[in-house]
Amino acid sequence: MYYYFVLITNRTMKRLLIILLFISAQLTSSAQSPHFSQFYSNPLYLAPSFAGSTLGTRFVLNYRDQWASLPGSYISSSFSADHYFPGIKSGMGLFVLIDDAGSGKMTTMNIGYQYSYKIRATSELYIQPGLSAYYYSRRTNYSKINFADQFFGNEFLGTTSEILPEQGVNHFDFAVSAMGYTENVWFGVNVDHLMSLSPVLNSDFKYPDLRVSLFGGVKIVTKRRFRNRNNETIHLAFNFRSESKINQLDIGGYYFKAPVMVGLWYRGMPIGNTYSNSDALIYLLGVKYNRFTFSYSYDMTLGNLIANTGGSHEISINYNIDNSKRHARKKKFRAIPCPEI
């Protein structure tokens, strides 16, 4: 999500006032969807095609603290659970997202159902379309927001001439996706906020714009271990998304040697935007033990904000009840080879 700030600074005199005006995103354009650096470890948020992708049962918890050094909190958290039903070749999942921008100033919540269907196109290629239907809610607490015209020098006047929109936006929304994969390669597309295609909602800036994501990757086995499944592997992946005329690319990978994984990612879009940007380098450290996978990543902010934001912290916890061996014996199914975290 993108936020806007007005800084009123008087370091030598009395105090530093930082007035958070992220609400201007509502006044001038549609809000951006929350973003997770570990997009591959939040699969149901990436695309509904990932529902049931492990051929078992999976529970995922994600937590992100963005720009920790700035006043106010920017916390995004999500929980998902999904399961694969081999009898109907379908995956189903439940997804919950809560995004808290500025210590309760603006809160977004999504609660939805996700469905995918597995199609064996060839002996090596599988196609998995997906659909998500969810309830979208966004609320703004104007009592916690200060505007620039409420200050005269260091004096707080307490009134504003801003014309404020409604406090809440509530509606149902939908997303569709399609993904293809082989034993070591996966690629797909996701289109979210389909309600924005409505002529009525499209002209209302309070509703989110259409979000299009292209994603994919490859798994490279560097050493095979025949006695167990803990091969040494390198996972390379990317996620490109476009929303509200803003383009963003995440690209990188990680190396896994049981039980540890380490990775490096780059987020930014030096070309293709109105303003080129290099947002962050993302460092990853994770541990996989039995059914649990725990990973931590740190976003080191690049550019002019490198010394001011404190970076971003993100945690992912994955619990997976793996049934892929049982399904694989039937020679009709194959799990998606995307990163397991």
CA radius of gyration: 22 Å
- Could you give the order of strands across the largest sheet? 3-4-5-6-8-11-12-13-14-15-16-17-18-19
Q: How widely separated are the two ends? A: 23 Å
Q: What CATH architecture would you give?
A: Beta Barrel
CATH fold assignment: Porin
The fraction of residues in strands falls at over 45%
Category by helix and strand content: mainly beta
What percentage of residues falls in helices of 4 or more residues?
under 10%
Overall pLDDT? 80
Major sheet, described briefly?
14 strands, antiparallel, barrel
Uncertain ranges = 1-29
Quaternary structure of the protein:
single chain
CATH-defined superfamily = monomeric porin ompg
Overall shape: it is: globular
Count of individual domains: 1
Number of helices: 4
Assign the CATH class: Mainly Beta
The sequence of SSEs as H and E is EEHHEEEEEEEEEEHEEEEEEEH
- Annotation, overall tally of beta strands: 19
